[in-house]
Amino acid sequence: MNRTRLHHIVFHPLVGLVVRLILGCIFIYASFDKIQNPASFAEIIYNYRILPAWTINVLAITLPWLEIIIGCFLILGIARTGSSFLLSGILVVFIIALALAILRGLDINCGCFSISASGDKVAISRLLEDVVLLGLSLYLLLAPFSVWQWSFAGIKIPKSELKYLK
Amino acid sequence: MLKFPDQTTLKMIILESAAILILAAIAGFGYNALSGSGIPLVAKVVDIGSTGGVKIQVVTNNIADDYPDLKIIDTATAYAYFRSDTAIFIDAREPDEYHLAHIPGAINVPMERYNPAAMNNIGKNQLLIIYCSDPDCHLAIDLAYELRNPDYTRVLIFHEGMAGWLKAGYPVAEAAHESH
How far is it, in rounded angstroms, from Cα A65 to Cα A93? Predict the structure, then answer.
């Protein structure tokens, strides 16, 4: 199989759609608990012992909404560039925070998907999950699909791409 | 090899990211202001005590600032009142939660189905300590305001509630009637 054919499989718009749906659903689901329990989420952020105390609440208030908005935009295909760019940035921050927590031996709540202590602890598995998600997010950011995306520049569907949908 | 696709420009990245961040800020701060479980924009770090010479600090979102007309007490103070038997504890939760575990001697006055008759045997001059399940639970505060109508003014809110009591390992009761 030549390079162009591989290119058109890996960057097929349907693959892009599936990745968008996966990432979108994960981040929407991850945001629910944190939106409903901001005080608990603030404590979780504090426990990482990274940020200065005065920044914690602002982060606890805005981060879950960032997750749910980006999740919705990814599913709908709105502003793919900005969404995947921000998501990649968020995931890099998560990975660094998790790595620091693991290295310092902190036995704390991850805050990844829920605010309850059971089952959502800081662990290497969480970090690896985020690395995979970062990979998917970078894929969306860098992949050259031109079908089925809206950006603020409008919908573009070049005819040359349509033949690969058959 | 890795490069942005042709239609992506730096301007697109910046504008779209900025728009999303602004939306998230509006949604986040708006929801925080309007929902019942909002937190202050700046948390307070307080010293909650020391064990073996090490100070423990925790971020608290100080409920007392939101309700300046209510007196909030912490777990240690609640226990002191419990030991000295100088206050009546009122459990604002649902009956099944109360029956599962409550502070010994506490009277169950469920806020979600408030019935003034539950307070019949309690004099207006009694010191009351109202609690519910945890700091996120609003029932104790709601009940405190409700009880002002029949003029109960000596009211303290044990804000950490059953969660704080259990965490401190203080005695609990399970049956509906027990001796104190």
Answer: 16
List chain A residues with CB under 8 Å of B46. Answer: none
Which pLDDT tens digit goes with each residue over B117-126? Answer: 888 888 888 8
Closest CA to B72 of B144, B17, B125, B126: B144
What pLDDT is stored for residue B9 in this prediction? Answer: 78
- B163 to chain A, any CB pair closer than 8 A? The answer is no
Q: What is the b/e burial string over B138-147, where b = at least 16 CB atoms within 10 angstroms of the residue's CB?
A: ebbbbbbebb
Q: Using an 8 Å Cβ cutoff, are A77 and A127 in contact?
A: no
Q: How much is the average pLDDT of B90-100?
A: 91
| Residue B119: both structure tokens together | 């307070």
Q: Determine, for residues A61 and B39 on separate chains, whether the beta-carbon distance falls below 8 Å.
A: yes
| Disruptive mutation site among B3, B6, B7 for chain A (greatest number of A CBs within 10 Å) | B7
Tell me the whole-structure pTM to 2 decimals.
Answer: 0.61
Q: Determine contact, residues B158/B129, Cβ cutoff 8 Å.
A: yes
List the B155-158 sheet strands across, edge first. Answer: B71-73, B155-158, B128-131, B88-91, B107-108
Residue of A nearest to B5 (CA): A144
Please give the ipTM for the structure prediction. 0.84
Q: Which two tokens stand for residue B9?
A: 């420009």
Chain B contact present for A73, CB below 8 A: yes
Strand-pairing partners, residue B91, are: B108, B131
Distances (CA, A) of A44 to A116, A134, B75, B89, B141: 10, 22, 21, 31, 25
Kindly state whether B66 is in contact with chain A, defined as any CB-CB distance less than 8 angstroms. no
A39 CA: distance to closest CA in chain B (Å): 6
Contact (CB, 8 A) for A152 and A79: yes
